[in-house]
Every structure is written in structure tokens, then in C-alpha cells.
Design brief:
Layout: H1 11-18, E1 24-25, H2 32-42, H3 50-53, H4 61-78, E2 80-81, H5 83-96, H6 109-120, E3 127-131, E4 136-140, E5 143-144, H7 158-169, E6 171-173, E7 182-183
Parallel strand pairs: 1-2, 5-7
Antiparallel strand pairs: 3-4, 3-6
Helix pairs in contact: 4-5
Length: about 230
């Protein structure tokens, strides 16, 4: 355990601490969905550090301390988290949620995020989306990329996948999110939609925002129509 706080890893420090054998979060008993989510959310970014310290109205302090002292701080300090620490968190999630299989079954990352952020910590939704077809507002904590297989996208970038997913689902962001968690396309042992996905180091959400001023691709002035 590492009760003192550690900042997220950056640049050369991230490479030095996180690269090599016995690094990352140790997997055990179908924990991969949770391991990769926790690593992505906390290893190299502080955007969700409020989850570790802030006393939200519905916040479960025990779960918060396990997350902070047994997982995030050791990950940032030594680059390694043992499976027992994650199992401790999974046991608490099983106890707090209505699901008995958090300790042994593979879950959907979105299910895990919704449980820990909404029900256990009481965080307001990070994303406010509007369906252009139904004109309904949808609140959530992450966006799962859902799209059909495209032959022209062999090794896509995250930017391309997000744009295609929003277009296919007819969704728009109602506001700029403070944190944009994106779940990549699913794959299993028998099928992979993409063999590789190139991370986009920056994400342009101009075309994804509702009622955002945009540039005409012909003349360069402010656009008045969308194809």
C-alpha cells in the first residue's frame, strides 16, 4: 500500500516506471476489463483524481481508499499493482452492487465504470449526448464505439473510430466533456474487428459538438449546412 499521494507519470518517467516485466496491473480470474480500465484512467493522467480524494455526497470512503492506496498510488510509485489489491476492490464492488460475480466473471468495462462512478462514488455523468434521431438527452460515463466493419479502415486511428461511431449512431456532444472515456471496438478470441488501433494523441471534437460553429470545406467561411 502507498497511502501518500503520487502524481501521474509523464514522459520519460512513465517509460522508466511502466515499461518492462512485472509492470502494470497483475491479471487474475477474469480481471482484464477492470485492470485495463484502471490503468487507462489513472496511470498517466490526473483528470479523474477527484475520484480518489473528493468526498462526493454518495461516496463510499472504503472503496475510495482501496482505489487510492492499494491501486493508483502503487501503480504510480512502482509501476506495479498486485492482483490481490484489485481483488480487494472487486470484493467491495460485489458487496455494494447487486452482482455476485464481480470477483470471478468478466464484465463489460462500462458496467464497471457505471457502478463505481455512479452508485459507489456518486459522480455526475461525464458525458451529455443528444440523439439526433430521437432528440433525447443521454447521460453517461463513457462512449462505446459501435460501428460496422469498414474495409477502408485497416489500421484506424482513434479519431476516425470516434467520428464514424458518432455518425453511425447519430449522436452529438451537448457540451465539451471534462473527461472523454472511449471504449474501443470489442473483440474476442475468435474475431477482431481491427488488428491494431493507433492512439490519437489529440482528439478534435469540433464536428461532434451540437450547434458548434464549423468551417465550410469549400470556401472556409462559417458553415450553414451539414451534409
Amino acid at each position: 500500500q502507498a497511502p501518500e499521494g503520487f502524481p501521474p507519470l509523464w514522459n520519460e518517467a512513465a517509460v522508466r516506471v511502466l515499461r518492462g516485466r512485472m509492470k502494470g496491473i497483475q491479471g487474475h480470474c477474469n480481471s482484464c476489463y477492470m485492470d485495463v480500465a484502471l490503468f487507462s484512467l489513472f496511470s498517466c493522467t490526473s483528470v479523474l483524481d477527484s475520484m480518489l480524494f473528493k468526498p462526493f455526497p454518495l461516496c463510499d470512503r472504503n472503496v475510495q481508499s482501496i482505489l487510492r492506496d492499494e491501486i493508483v498510488n502503487p501503480l504510480r510509485k512502482t509501476g506495479f499493482v498486485r492482483a490481490g489489491s484489485v481483488m480487494h476492490l472487486r470484493e467491495q464492488l460485489t458487496e455494494k452492487g447487486q452482482f455476485s460475480s464481480f470477483t470471478n466473471a468478466e464484465k463489460d468495462p462500462e458496467e464497471f465504470l457505471n457502478l463505481i462512478m455512479q452508485q459507489i462514488l456518486g459522480i455526475e455523468p461525464l458525458l451529455k449526448l443528444q440523439s439526433e434521431k430521437r432528440k433525447e438527452q443521454q447521460d453517461g460515463y463513457c462512449h462505446q464505439i459501435i460501428m460496422d466493419k469498414r474495409e477502408d479502415l485497416v489500421v484506424p486511428e482513434v479519431q476516425q473510430l470516434v467520428e464514424h461511431s458518432f455518425l453511425a449512431s447519430e449522436l452529438k456532444l451537448m457540451e465539451i466533456p471534462s473527461c472523454f472515456i472511449i471504449q474501443m471496438p470489442r473483440f474476442g478470441k475468435q474475431y477482431k474487428m481491427f488488428s491494431k488501433i493507433i492512439p490519437s494523441l489529440e482528439l478534435d471534437i469540433t464536428d461532434l459538438l451540437l450547434n458548434s460553429p464549423r468551417e465550410c470545406c469549400v470556401c472556409g467561411n462559417v458553415a450553414t449546412l451539414e451534409c
